[in-house]
Amino acid sequence: MRAISLFALVALLWAGRSAAQYGTSGVLTLSGEGPAETGASMLRFLKVFETRLGVPARITYRVTTSVAADASISADVAAQTAASPSKLQFAMTEQPLSSAQRASFSGNAAVVGSSVHFPVYVNSYGLFYNVPGNRVTPLNITACLAARILTGDVQEWTHPDFLDKNPGFVKTGTDSYKITVLMDTATSGSTLAVLGWLAKACPSVPVTYTGVRADAVAVGSNMIASLQSTGYSFGFAMGSVGRAASVSEFAVETATAGQYLQTGSTNTTNMQVALAAAVPTTLSGDYSTATVVSLSADRVAPILTVGYLVTKSDWSTEGLEEGQRGELVRALCAFFQSSTITSSSTGMLNDAGLLALGSTLVSAVNITASSVFVSHPSAVKYTTTDGVGANVVSSTRSSYEVTTYQDLTAQMAAMKKQLDVGAARVMRGVGSSAVSLFMWRVFGELKGRSTTPLHMVYRAAGSGAGQGEVLAKANKYQSLVDFGASDTPMPDATFTELTNTAKVPIVHIPILLAPMNFFVNIPDSALPSRLIKMSPCTIAKIMQADITSWSHADIAADNGGVALPDQPITVFYRQLSSGTTAVITEYLNRACAGTWRLGSGGLLSNWPPTFKPTANAANMSTSVFTTSWSIGYMDAANGLDVNLIEVAVRNKDGNYVTSQTGDVPAAATALFKSDAWPKSPLLSFASVSCLNQPGANTFPIVAMPFMFVRTDLTSRGDSGALLVAYLTFMLDTFAQNTIAKALGFEPLPTEVRQYTTERALPLLQVDTRSKAWVFESGSTLSGGKGSTDNVISGFGGNYENLNAQGFADFYKAYNLAQNRAQATKAASGGNSTGSGSGSGGNYTAVLSGIPPDLIDQLDNLQKQVDILKAVAITAAVFGVFGLSLAIFTSCRMFVHMSLWGGAGAAGPGSNSMVHPASISILGSNGGVRRQKSISNFSVGEGSMGSEKSV
Ligand SMILES: *[C@@H]1O[C@H](CO)[C@@H](O)[C@H](O)[C@H]1NC(C)=O
Ligand SMILES: *[C@@H]1O[C@H](CO)[C@@H](O)[C@H](O)[C@H]1NC(C)=O
Ligand SMILES: *[C@@H]1O[C@H](CO)[C@@H](O)[C@H](O)[C@H]1NC(C)=O
Ligand SMILES: *[C@@H]1O[C@H](CO)[C@@H](O)[C@H](O)[C@H]1NC(C)=O
Ligand SMILES: *[C@@H]1O[C@H](CO)[C@@H](O)[C@H](O)[C@H]1NC(C)=O
Questions:
Q1: Neighbours of 878 (CB within 10 A)
Q2: Centre of ligand 3 from the C-alpha of residue 892, in Å
Q3: Does ligand 3 lie within 6 Å of residue 337's CB atom?
Q4: How confident is the model over 349-362, as pLDDT tens digits?
Q5: Of the ranges 132-141, 181-190, 470-479, which is most confident?
Q6: CA 438, CA 734: separation in Å to the nearest integer?
Q7: Whose CA is nearest to atom 4 of ligand 1?
Q8: Cα dist. 915→435, 641, 849 in Å?
Q9: With a 6 A CB cut-off, is 250 part of the ligand 1 pocket?
Q10: Which residues, 6+ apart, have CB-to-CB distance to 891 below 8 Å?
Q11: What are phi and psi for residue 156, nearest 5 degrees?
Q12: Dist. CA 628 → ligand 4 center (Å)
C-alpha cells in the first residue's frame, strides 16, 4: 500500500512535471510586448521560433512602443504576487528601463532576482529631407545643426551655417527655402533615438520634445509619406525604412569630426567592435545610462539604439508553469543569437533592416546569461541542437505557414524580376511638332540599341501642350508626362507658377538648333545668280507691306544698287499658331526694333490684308514654290528641299549670310557665352534666345527648342531612369550630328551640350530602386555584359537612321520631281495634258539637277507602282483568289505611296504638292520637319555611335 502510494506520488509528480511543458491548457503561452518600428519583424521571428519548438507553445506579442513596453513589464512585475504570477514574460525595448522601473523588480518581495537586459539587435536611425534639387549629392548635417533646426534657431536651408557644411547645395534662387520640421510622436523609437543622440552629440543645444519649434508638423508614423509629399521638409526614421522608400537621406556627422555618413554606409565590422565596448554585458545591471549613439569608430552612423529583450532573471521561486515559461524565454534568447537571426547574409535581422550585434558581444552575453538566469528546478530545459525531441528548438523543424511565407516571398521576388525584365520601360512626352521627327527617330535609335524593351511616345500636340502638360495646373500640378518640349523657352508666368506656386523645380534641356529663314521665288531670268541680300529692316518693311515691289530702292540698296523688276511682292504668312511665326517675328522685333510694328508671337492677327495665308509649313513652301515673285518664311530645311532661293540676311556684324553660308551653331555659342544664358539650369530661360547673335559669320535666325523636365522624377518609377538615359543619348554625337542633321537641323555646340550634361542632368532625381542605364561602347562592358538588362549598346542600331543619307536623298529627289511637275503644270495654266509637263507627264523634263542614279530609282518606283496598279485591277477581276492578291498588292502600293508621299496624292489643280507633312497624322499645327539631304553621313562618331565594323 505504502509502495503503491509512493508510486502514485512519483507518478503524480511526474505528471505535473510533464504537464509543465504543455501548460495547464496543453499549450504553453508566453506574452511579450514591444515597439512598432520592429513589430512586424518581431512577429515573424516569434512565429519561426514557435515552429521550431517540438512542444506546442503560443507567443502573443503586443505591438506598442518601447516606452509602453518598459512601463508594462515593470508594472506587471510590481503587481506580481505569489498567487498571481506575471502576465507579461518579456518586453522588447530600444529604451532601457529607468532605474525606478528596474527597482520594481527588486522592490517586490514576491519577485526574486532582478531585471535582465538581453541585447538582440542594433537599429540605425537616419535623418531625411526633401529639398528639391539636392538629392544626388547628399546634404551634410551635424548634431548641432539638427538640434538648431528642431529648436527653430535655423529656419532656412540656406542658413549660412548650413551652407557652410554644404558647399554643393543647389538653389534655384527663387525659393524661400523655409524648413518644415516633421515630428513623430514623443514616445516613438525614432524620436527617442534622435533626441538621445542630440543629448550626447550636441549638449550645448538642449532639445526636448516639447522644446521643438511650435510650427513643427506632427505626422506620427506617417513620416515617410509626409517627407515625400512635403517640399523643404526635415524628418527622421529608421534608416532602412527611409532607404527602401528612396527618401533623400542626410550624411550625418559621425563621432569623427568632419566625417559625414548615411546609415547604409556604416562599416559594420567597426560598429560591432565599438558595440562590444559600449554595451554592458552584466545583463542584470542598471542599463538606464547605457547608450550606443555617436560611437567612437570610423565610418559608423551615429544614431544607433540597441534592441533589448527585458525579462526577469530568477524563475526558480515561481510556480512550475511560470518557471517553464522562463525556460522558453531563455530559449528565445538563444534563438535570437542563432545564425537564423544574426547571419550577415541570410539572417532575419538583415531582412528586417536591422543590424547584428557581432560575435564578440554575442559570446560575452551568452556567457553571462548562463549565470544570470536561474531556472525553476523542475522546469524542462530546451536545447537548440538540431533533433527530433519535443524540447528541442530544431533548425530543421518548420511549418506550412513559415515555409509557404518564405516560398511566396522568394517567388514574388522572382516574378517581379521577370516582370521587370520582360516589361517595357515607358516614357511619355508631348510638345512641339517641329521637333517631332527628331524625337521619333531618336526613339527608334534607342529602341534598336536597348537590351530592354522600350515604349516611348511623343505626342506632337504643339509647343503650348509641351508647356501646359508639364505645368499640369488642371491636374493639381501632377504631371502625366515625363517631359514637355517647345520651340521656345517656358514663359516667365508659367515658370513662376510651376516653381514658386507649385514648388516644382524644372530644368530646360536644349534639344537642337533649327535655322529658319525667308525664301523667295524670283524667276532665274531676273536673278541668275540666285543670290538676294536683305537687311533685317528691309525684311521687316516687306513683312508689314511698307515695301510692296521688288524694285524698291531698299532692296536694291542691299544688293549693290541693282534693282529687280517692278513686280508686286506676294507675301505668304502662317494663318494658324506656328512656332516659325513666333521665331521670325521675334527676330524682326530684336533686329529691327524701330521699324517692325506687328509685334511677335505664334499667331499674329494684324497681317496686312493683301498677304496670303497658308495652313502649315508644307503649304508655305509649296505656295512660295508655285508663286513667282513671292516671299515666305519657313525652317531652312523646308525651303532648301524645294530648291527655293534663300535670302542672305544681314547679321548683327553686318555680313550677309544664309543658313548654308553662315554658321548656325555659332548663334548658340555666342548666346551661351553671353550674360543672357542663365547661371543655373534651374532658373527661368524665358528670355533666352539665339536670335540675332553677334559674330562675323553667325547666322541670325536660329531657334533653340527646349525640353522641360521636372527635377524630381522619383515618383515616376523606371521612367525617370529612362528619361535620363534618353537625354544623355539625345545630347551625344550620334543623335546631334547624324539624326538631327539628316532631318535638316543643326547640332547644339559642344559647350551647350557639355553644360547640360554636367549641370542639368545631375539635378534629375530618379527613383533609386530603378536600374540605371549603361551605355556600351567599343571598350566597355567586356565579357558579354553588353547583353544584360538596361544596356544601350553602341553595337545596336536602327536601319532607318543608318541609311538616313540614302533615304534623305531619295526623298528629296522625289519631292523635287513632284514639285517641279506641279510647278510646270501651274505655269502652263493647269493643263496636265500639255506636252512635256504635268504631274503624270514627262518626268525626264523635270528631273534636271537630280543625280542620275536617283532618277533611275524613281523610274523603277514609278514602274513598280504602275505594275502593281495593273495587277491589283486584274486580280480584282479574278474572284476570291484574286481578292487576296488584290489586297496584298494594294497594301504594297499603299506602302510605297505612303512612304514616298503618294503619287496620286496631289490632285489636278490642287495646291497640295507632295509633302511628307501631308502624310503625317497631326493636329492643326502639323507642320513637321522633313528630311533634308546631307552630304557626309557617317556612323562611328562619338562614344555612343562607336559602331566601327559589324
Ligand atoms: C558634404 O560634405 C562632403 C565632404 O564631406 C562634400 O564632398 C559634399 O559636397 C558635401 N555635400 C554638399 C551638398 O555640399
Ligand atoms: C571597415 O573598416 C575596417 C577597418 O577600418 C577595414 O579594414 C574594412 O575594410 C572596412 N570594411 C568595409 C566593408 O569597408
Ligand atoms: C552559448 O553558450 C552555449 C554553451 O553555454 C553554447 O552551446 C552556444 O553555442 C553559445 N551560443 C552562442 C551563440 O555563442
Ligand atoms: C491643253 O493643251 C492641249 C495641247 O496643247 C490643248 O489642246 C488644250 O486646249 C489645252 N487645254 C487647256 C485647258 O488649256
Ligand atoms: C520629255 O522631255 C525630254 C527632255 O525635254 C524630251 O527629250 C522627251 O522627248 C520628252 N518626252 C515626251 C514624251 O514628251
A1: 11
A2: 80
A3: yes
A4: 998 999 999 999 99
A5: 181-190
A6: 12
A7: 260
A8: 17, 10, 19
A9: no
A10: none
A11: -125, 150
A12: 22
- What is the tens place of the pLDDT at every residue in 67-79? 999 999 999 999 8
Across the chain, mean pLDDT equals 84
Question: Is the pLDDT confidence value at 154 over 80?
Answer: yes
Angle at 414 between CA 409 and CA 415, to 5 degrees: 95
Residues near 803 by beta carbon (within 8 Å), at least 6 away in sequence: none
Report residue 401 as a C-alpha cell.
505557414
The residue with cell 530568477 is 314
Average pLDDT over residues 493-498: 94
Q: In angstroms, rounded to a whole number, what is the distance separating the alpha carbons of residues 2 and 411?
A: 65
Burial of 346 (0-12, 13-18, 19+ CB in 10 A): exposed
Question: pLDDT per residue over 268-288, tens digit each?
Answer: 999 999 999 999 999 999 999
Hunting for cell 511637275 — which residue is that? 821
Smallest Cα–Cα separation from 29: which of 328, 244, 262, 298?
328
Ligand nearest to the CA of 845: 5
Q: Which three cell numbers stand for residue 528?
A: 541668275
DSSP state of 264: G
Residue 551 CA to ligand 4 center (angstroms) comes to: 34
**By the 8 A CB rule, do 130 and 233 touch?**
yes
Share of the chain above pLDDT 70, in %: 81
- Average pLDDT of 193-221? 96
- The whole-angstrom separation of Cα 279 and Cα 357 is 10
- Ligand 5, atom 2, lies closest to the CA of 845
Residue 766 and residue 747 in contact, taking contact as beta carbons nearer than 8 Å: no
Residue 650, φ and ψ in degrees, nearest 5: -75, 120
Q: What is the pTM of this model?
A: 0.62
Measured from the Cβ of residue 600, the count of other Cβ atoms closer than 10 Å reads 16
Q: Of the segments 83-92, 468-477, 508-517, which one has the largest average pLDDT value? A: 508-517
What ligand is nearest to the CA atom of residue 344? 2
CA of 131 to the centre of ligand 1 (A): 15
What residue ranges define each of the domains in the chain, with the CATH number in brackets?
A: 2-120+303-412 (3.40.190.10), 125-265 (3.40.190.10), 425-512+705-777 (3.40.190.10), 514-672+695-701 (3.40.190.10)
The β-bridge relationship of strands 90-93 and 28-35 is parallel
pLDDT at 789: 85
Task: Looking at the CA of 343, name the nearest ligand.
Answer: 3
CA 528 to ligand 1 center in whole angstroms? 66
Distance CA 49, CA 328 (A): 10
The cell numbers describing 853, all together, are 542614279
